[in-house]
Every structure is written in structure tokens, then in C-alpha cells.
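[Solved] Which block belongs to which protein?

Original post:
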Amino acid sequence: MPRLAVLRELLLRVKHVLDRHPVQREISCNGRLIELSNRVIVQPGGEREYPAARDFELLELLVTSSPRVVSRNEILDALWGEDKFLNQRTVDNMIVRLRQLLGDTKSTCIRSVRGVGYQWCGDGE
């Protein structure tokens, strides 16, 4: 089988899998609904919270990288680019704000991995 035909077959198979398993655009954590497409966190009482743009980008990065642990340096590079030299505490402060919005007082949704970074666990994952 020629290489081009094999590549075409592979691409069709990948497309088929992606079509059958679309990216989840709504997730939950501690009774809060996170609408990734609208960039909003809906609180249990229905109140809508709109996190800062970079905070929400961090949340999306963690969710899409799950179950992999994302390092602080990887987060800084993804959100600001490699040419910025920010302190890693910046990431820690963003995580604190996200946990407050998510009511994640016991770190059940966003798990800290000591010396490595952060991991999205979500509800029941």
C-alpha cells in the first residue's frame, strides 16, 4: 500500500474517532457548571462568574491536558509565551483564584502535585 494511501487512511480514522468523541464543552466541579465555550462558571444558585481571561485559559489548559500533570513552567509558557520571565508564584495565585470560584476548598478539582505542577481531576475523575 503506498504511503499516501496509508496516511489518508490514518487521517480518516482519526477524524472518525474525533467525530464520535467530541470535546466536552461543559464540565462540572463541586456543583458548579463550567461552560468552556462561553468562558463562564455557573454557581449552584445560578449566578454566573466570569473569571479573568488568563485564569480561564489556565482552567482550559488543565482540563484539556487531563489527566496529565501540567508544570508551572509549561503553564507560564502556554499563557505568556517563552519570552516572558514571570515568577512561578503567578501560577499559584491563579490556581488560588480558580479554586475559590470553583468552591474547591479541598483541592478535589485542581490537584497540586508537589514539585511538579497541577492536574485537573474534576468531579469523580
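(Second protein starts here: sequence line, then its C-alpha cells.)
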Amino acid sequence: MYQYRQALLSMRRGDTDRQIAQTRLLGRPKLSQLRQQALERGWLESDSPLPDDALLAEVFGKTRRSASTQSPLEPHRQQISEWMQAGVSGQVILAHLQRSHGYTGSYSSVYRMMVSIAGTRPAKATVPLAFGPGEAVQVDFGAGPMLHDPASGKVRRTWAFVMTLCFSRHQYLEFVWDQKVATWLGCHRRAFEWFGGVPRRVIIDNAKCAIIKACVTDPVVQRSYAECAEGYGFRIDPCPPADPQKKGVVEAGVKYVKNNFLPLRTFRDMADLNRQAREWVTHHASERIHGTTRKKPSALFVVERSALLPLPGIAPDLGVWQPVKVHRDCHVAYERALYSVPFRLVGQTLWLRSTDTLVAIYHGHHQVAAHRRARRPGERLTVRDHLPPEAVRFLSRDRQWCQEQAGKVGPATLELVTWLLSDKVLERLRAAQGVLRLSEQYGNARLEAACERALAHTSPYYRTVKTILAGNHDLRPPAPDYSPQSYAATARFVRPAHRLFDDTSLTPQ
């Protein structure tokens, strides 16, 4: 109200309304109104005190013009206010009012009501966060350009990883294909190497690659990211859910990248995109006068660099942890590849830790398996000792092993096993293994005698050898030689030996 006080002083000096209006304090209509009030209240008397600002505001303050008509949404004001507090948009409110309350007005009426309700609420006070050199960085992802992915042969969305130092506003920018845990950890490593040090605190949002459970007081950090923080020595500071203002530095940095780097540029591939991004950060983003600090980020970074924590002498082995379940085939699946674990853990949930070259699997705190990283999707990496004993025996006792073991037992056993393995129609590997396994119970000598008797009777089968041994027929003297052809061809119980062997040898036809 200082204009009114100055105008009153001019009126006391005898200036006319036209002269006062030329000074642009007030217009002539208001000056006329002021002079009338001053005459009625005696303010123009030289010996009377000037009115204070409160009284002038009471007399000349603006009065809100009452609306000529009441809004049809006035009965729903309280309900609309509650919906606004819950974060419901105006379009959803309009649709609900039309559907449930028969509202026939337009969205403009709903918008005016929302503005009216918002104007009655007290404004929220904010406090800008101040950071010292090397104290903190803020990290976020932002959408990047569409590029052709040679791995999939499709055009895919890229993502911009932005890490901004809170003191100097110097930033690291890298474009990636996804927001997976391994990508997140790799970007952190390259960003710390770009800065030449590690900040004491990393402020992030609640991305799944970093935070498993978002919470204001007790967030749950992803195991891989916690291991990264421990290896580099920084503390993770996740923002409260739905409160991105807590990392406004990097939010502004992401917008700066979208508005100043991406427009009017073309990129051949991901390598070209990141090359241009590094050049832009080095020669443009770091050399501009920042709107908040009013200094170049590169100049402030010279001060901040010495305050960063030193990089570890040996870079931490950043591994991705993931719970996996052991399937019935004694393997776990990870990144479309299969890795074996001991068969006794079938059905249990284990922890898998993967790096660029190694996959390790843990049960509790103990490592139970380790494999090289699969080179292609669908690859199955199996350690034979992880399989059940019966499976190991079957897989280890192949055809070559069977023939070698049969040769150690005797010539008859070798001949019988060779015939079983040379069948052109039926796979008889298990039968050969079963014949050799009989030596564990009856010994090599009796097995050799049983095989010789089975061959003599032209019945070189596992069941025949087992029956001979079980009935102790191998201990009896050998039967007199006979010729199967001496029997009538029409005899009911004659075995047609010519179908198994020829007349000169026991070689299967």
C-alpha cells in the first residue's frame, strides 16, 4: 500500500490528481477514490498522522467478485478434494461423475473446480539440498533414442544412464539397451572410473535393479547392489517412494540431456551414440555456465575431484545375485542356459551369482557348484558328479567301457557283449551293462562260464545269463554237444537258431 501513502503525501503538498497520475503511482480513478476517502477521514490534514498499511488495505483492498451462478459441481467439492489428494486425474474424475452422478458438464468445469480447491490449500514449502564436494551423486535412467539392435535384429529403445555429482554438477552419461542389474552395476563401475573416484553417498530412486522393496524408513537393497556398495565404499541413499524431488539434480540432468543433446542428431549404432555423448559431456555440458551454481561444472569438478574417495586398488568383482530353483534334471536355469548342481538339492531354492565369466551357485553360505558362463542360449553345462549315482553309472559305462570290461572277464563274455552292442535294430547298452554288473555278485569266473553256456545254447541275452547264474547251472558239467538242426523243423519248442547265428560262428547276422 506504499502507492497510496505516497499519493496522500502528494495530495497534502497540494498536487492535483493529474499531476500525481503522471508519476504513475496510481491512475486517476483510484486517485479520485483516494481523495474522497481522505477528505472524509481527515487524512489530508497536515497535523494528522498518515494511515498505516493495514488500514489502507482494509479500505482499498481488492474484494473478490462473487460469481453470478454457482458451479454445478459445488455439491461434489468435498469428494473432488479427496480424489485430488489421492492423486486421481481430472479426466478420471469427469468420467466418474458422468457415469455415477449423471453430470453433463464439460471438463473445463471440473478443471476450474480443481483449481479452486488447489488454491485453498497452503503451499508446500521446500528446502533446497546443499552438498559438499565429494559428498553425493544422484543417479537416474532416462529414455534414449530408438536404435537398431544387431543382436535381435529389431529397432529397440535405448536408455540413458546419468550420474551427476551434486556439488560440481559434472556428469557421466552412457546409453544402454536395458536396465538389468548387470547393466546397472557396469554403469556404476565405468562412472566411478570416469570421475576418478567414488562419492560417499549415491542417491537413487527405487528401480528394481537397485531396491527390492521401496520404503521410507526400511528399504530392502538388491543383494548385488549392496555388494557393489561394500566393494567401492559408498552408501546407498534411496529416495522415498513417489518423491523424485529428493534427487532433483539428476532429474534436471536427464532433462538437459533430452533437450540439448538428443535433438537434431543422428546415430549409426550404440557405439556412435556413446562416442557423441562423451564428446558432448566433455566439450559442452561440462563447459557451460550452470544455471544454479553459475559456474562451469568442469571448474568445480577440479575442487571436487580431490574430495572423492579413491578407487579400490583392485576393482570389485561385481556379480549379479539371483535366487534359482533346482529342477528335477539337477539343473538351474539362468539367462536361458542350464547349470548343474548336486542331485540332493533337487526342489530347493539356491542363490546364483554370475559374473562375465563365471556362474557360482550357493546353498546357504556354501558354494555347491561353479561353471563357466554359457556362451549361447540353450547351452547345458553339466558336471557328471552332480547327477544321481545310477545316472552316473549309465553315462560313464558307454560302449567302449563295456567292451573293455568284457575283455577283462573272458572271451565268451566279450563275444556275448559284442553281440548285444552290435544289434542293428534294438539298443542293448543297458543289457550289456547288466551282464557285466553280474560279476560284482558272482565273480568273473562264474560270469565267463555262464556266458559260455548261454552262447552254447544260442541265447546270448541278459536274462539267460542271469538265470544260469541264479540256478547255479554254470557249476554243472557242460552238456554234450548237439546240433539244433537234428530236431524236426516243425517241433513246437525248437528255437530257430539260424535267425541268430550262422553255421560257422556266433556272429550275429
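Accepted answer:
You had them paired correctly. Confirming on the second one: Residues 261 and 280 are 7 Å apart (CA to CA).
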